[in-house]
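Progress note, sequence design subtask.
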């Protein structure tokens, strides 16, 4: 193959190796970014659960405030309304979080919590009616709803525990993916650089060695030694140069042979003339 093709192909091969290494690194980086994206999503879900938990606790506290201040009509109405507002807020957050969570255990838990929370609301309303009927006796209202918030509380606690664990796992996976992407990118860069160096050395040798041999042959011929054996092993420009030197060496041998033969003929003729044979 001629150098006019060999060199561009070599450079193209090196560029291809470097490009492949770069694409491999980008692919690994994209996978790492996707993992981080999942970690961010789970972190957002964990934050949403904490907000839901806070709203649920607020709802329970508003119920306690209703019982404690129930004898004052204005205070009782204010805190009972606050309880119902917190209840609606919890229900809205449950619906939103349920739509965001993927199918599986966590979505089942939020659905169970939603149903348990709805049932709790009905039980607390019955408790409120008993509280009012008992002349706003806080102990009656408290006894009426005793343990009614346990089921939703336990479900919400379990959901929070699972999402926090999933968040920790996602963060750990993202960190591992980032480290793996960095390592793979470095390996790809090293391998790409190594391949480029090897390709450069091979191409350099394929050019420098024949040229060095051509210089050596030329110097030998210039010194008058025409016995050098010239071997042509390639068909590129360096091979053509060696072939030209080989042809030149052959031609010079023929010329020297003819000159020598002519000189011998002249010598013989001169000897004959000298001896009077002519």
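Output:
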């Amino acid at each position: 193959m001629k150098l006019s093709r060999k060199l561009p192909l070599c450079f193209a091969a090196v560029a291809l190796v470097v490009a492949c290494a770069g694409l491999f690194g980008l692919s690994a980086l994209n996978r790492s970014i996707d993992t981080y994206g999942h970690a961010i999503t789970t972190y957002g879900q964990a934050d949403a659960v904490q907000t839901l938990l806070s709203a649920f606790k607020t709802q329970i506290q508003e119920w306690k405030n209703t019982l404690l201040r129930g004898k004052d009509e204005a205070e009782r109405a204010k805190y009972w309304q606050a309880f119902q507002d917190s209840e609606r807020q919890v229900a809205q957050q449950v619906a939103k979080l349920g739509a965001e969570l993927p199918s599986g255990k966590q979505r089942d838990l939020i659905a169970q919590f939603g149903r348990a929370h709805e049932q709790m609301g009905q039980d607390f309303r019955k408790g409120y009616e008993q509280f009012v009927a008992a002349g706003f006796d806080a102990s009656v209202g408290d006894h009426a709803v005793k343990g009614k918030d346990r089921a939703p509380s336990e479900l919400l606690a379990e959901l929070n525990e699972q999402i926090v664990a999933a968040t920790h796992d996602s963060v750990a996976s993202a960190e591992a993916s980032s480290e793996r992407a960095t390592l793979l990118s470095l390996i790809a860069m090293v391998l790409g650089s190594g391949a480029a160096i090897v390709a450069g050395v091979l191409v350099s040798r394929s050019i420098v060695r024949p040229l060095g041999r051509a210089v050596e042959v030329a110097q030998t011929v210039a010194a008058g030694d025409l016995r050098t054996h010239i071997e042509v092993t390639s068909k590129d420009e360096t091979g053509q140069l060696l072939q030209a030197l080989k042809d030149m060496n052959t031609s010079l041998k023929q010329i020297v042979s003819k000159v020598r033969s002519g000189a011998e003929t002249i010598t013989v003729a001169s000897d004959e003339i000298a001896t009077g044979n002519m």
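DSSP finds six helices and no strands in the chain. Work on this subtask will continue into the next period as scheduled.
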